[in-house]
Write a structure and sequence with these properties.
2 copies of one chain form a homodimer. Chain A is about 75% helix and about 5% strand. Chain A has helices at about 5, 15-30, 40-50, 50-65, 85-105, 110-125, 130-150, 155-165, 165-180, 185-195, 200-225, and strands spanning about 70, 75-80.
Chain lengths: ~220, ~220
Amino acid sequence: MDQTDDLRIDHAPLTLRALAVDRLRSAIIAGRFQGGDRLVERTLCDQLGVSRSVVREAIRYLEAEGLVETAPRAGPIVARLDWDQARQVYAIRRLLEADAAAACARVASPAVKADVASALAGIEAAFATPDNRDLYAATTAFYRVIFTSAGHHIAWEIVQRLNGRISRLRALTLGTTDRKLSGPAHMARIAAAIGANDPEAAATAVRAHLDEAAEIARLLLEGQG
Amino acid sequence: MDQTDDLRIDHAPLTLRALAVDRLRSAIIAGRFQGGDRLVERTLCDQLGVSRSVVREAIRYLEAEGLVETAPRAGPIVARLDWDQARQVYAIRRLLEADAAAACARVASPAVKADVASALAGIEAAFATPDNRDLYAATTAFYRVIFTSAGHHIAWEIVQRLNGRISRLRALTLGTTDRKLSGPAHMARIAAAIGANDPEAAATAVRAHLDEAAEIARLLLEGQG
DNA sequence: GGGAAAATCTTGGTATACCATCATACGACA
DNA sequence: TGTCGTATGATGGTATACCAAGATTTTCCC
């Protein structure tokens, strides 16, 4: 925090493209577009107020992210999600998040523990609000602390991308189990394990949390067909 | 395999964009572009013989893949790779590949075992050729069998993407250790564990292989600075 | 009412133009 | 001579127009 930082003009490098990607991703994650919905370029141009170039490049980006699928000649659609995919996503998250939590617990300094505690408090605060998005954001922030403090930046990228794919599902599971029952308790166990520098306990707590979330997701998805 | 399949003309949905992405990705993986090299749009238009739109969309795709970085105002460059990133990549591969090998060993049918054995033979054959690319391709095919037969399609996507990031590194490690010493032996151990339906042994063999590859990579990268 | 032909929509692709920014080079002035 | 300012070119970001081909919808005729 020296003065050079303060003087630096943080000229936002916001390209229209980056904004469009964010808007579209948010819209998909928020469920504004359903899986299978067509993303008609010129319609999006109107809705976003930008040109086709911008929309097309944004779609390419989301395509590589796995949020959008481009059928051979039919144009882009919002990626569909079935239980088999969701199962794989939860399995991968289980590996990566357990590993990150263990690594975080292994190296956690007092400062990191304070960040984790603060993020946990954020979850508990969001738990009291009626809006699921607050809980969603708070949970994301909690895991971000864990991943980044463990130095697992690439794994965090991957997890975020995976969460994008199952975002609607995640919003649903957050709205049921996590909110009502064991979610905050699991988070507290994770935070406690990190506070105690107990990697094995942290990993176990993460696995328990994800196994439960996956089970809820399975019930939701298989119920819908 | 009914006749409709045989009659179907598999009209490749090859868009120019897809071709451009493949070309660029291959060029980067093959080392034709070094990390940090600028990707000047109009130059690529000439080299690929396509218009700027196609080039730009291809770059967006590769950007989301992590092979290309777009600096705020400097335009796209080939992503750089340092040991910290490579370390993370090997750690993630270790988790995903060990899990996939274990899952594959758990469920492997005689047909899967035959595929694995065949892929192993491919590695040993490529081992005898002077071109590293053959070994690269054969190794990729080996792991593809493992991942897809375990149903870990999303994990395979992730691993492929990660491998893209460390591709030059991977080519180097394949060219040293894997070729000369333990590489094929490790692969044989993995295949044997799958053949014996022994998940734990398969996972252990994968971890041993990757730990060695990561160590070679570390020496290479830290040596270069 | 069903099916074929036509109209329309949409995407993939190209070319072009315009602007802002950045770097470079060149020239003028102290 | 050295420094500053400006002209210029390269480049990325954005917008627009256009065309071909495939997909979809509509229409119209039997």
